[in-house]
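Re: the request from the purification team.
They wanted to know what the chain is likely to look like in 3D before they choose a buffer screen. I agreed to run a prediction and write the result into the notebook, where they can find it.
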Amino acid sequence: MKRQLLSVLLVGLLPGLLSACVSFAATPGERFQKVMKEMAELCQSKKLIATDSRCILPKMQPADPLATEEGRFAHSIKIPNPVPADSGYKSDMTPEQYFDHLCKTEAGEFIYKTVENVEGLYMMRPRPTATDYELEHLYALEDPYGQVLGVSQGPGDYYVQPAIGKYQFLEEPFHQENQNSKNNRYRRYYRDPLAHPGKDFQTAIDGKFVRVPYLVAQQEVEVLQSRYGYTWRGITRSHDRQYGIAGGELIVLDLKTKEILAVRRGFIKSGNVRNITAISWLNGQVCPSSGDKREHLLVKEVLKPNPAVNKQEGK
């Protein structure tokens, strides 16, 4: 009787056990696709409103790296240490093993040349601010690694504002929304003590939080002043995203000679979270070990700001 009861219990539990095994063995990509299919079917069968997350996520498309002029240029750059077409992936690797392999064999900061006394620079490809949906989508962001460690909001604060910023100016592409300003191709952030009377800015100096005058102004201009700049691009290979891994490269270059001054290549593995998609780039694991270094800090190591710029402001 006990043996018969045990058999009944095992038969009853078998579908759940098999499902658990399949779920455990599935890659992040397989789980993501399964969830997207289920959400799309639910959205259609329940006739949910278009703004429901269960309708928004399945309709999101993979990022197109070549959709913009800035993206096409970034992916056309030839660097001294390109990633190999064969990443070293093996079918018996776990996501953790594959991530560790990429970190050991491909990730790192590669500085070929530094430049002294730089007064300003060109941010050639501004990063859009990622939405919550994009940060939980496996394919919507081209470079989740750079999105987490890069500058997507307030670039003038990171590069120009005294105390945290070190340059006299920062330039970026300016995409016209007003046809009357079609001659202006760039936006320039620069220091102007009269730009924001009475407005201050919280920062850290010598380990203490202080408030200093906010000096960042901006204008649209037709001609670049920058001699140096930087851009970024995602790394796309067949197995990376399937394993919940994404790579990205930051490239610093001489705009006049096109010489590559530095490359930072890093990888991120999605965090293990219990959200709808089981994907979270914001909580991901990054490498190299210095991967928590923000983008602007590496740029300043390569393009060393002119000390005189900061002496003028007493910073």
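For the purification team: The chain has a mean pLDDT of 86.
Please add any questions underneath this entry.
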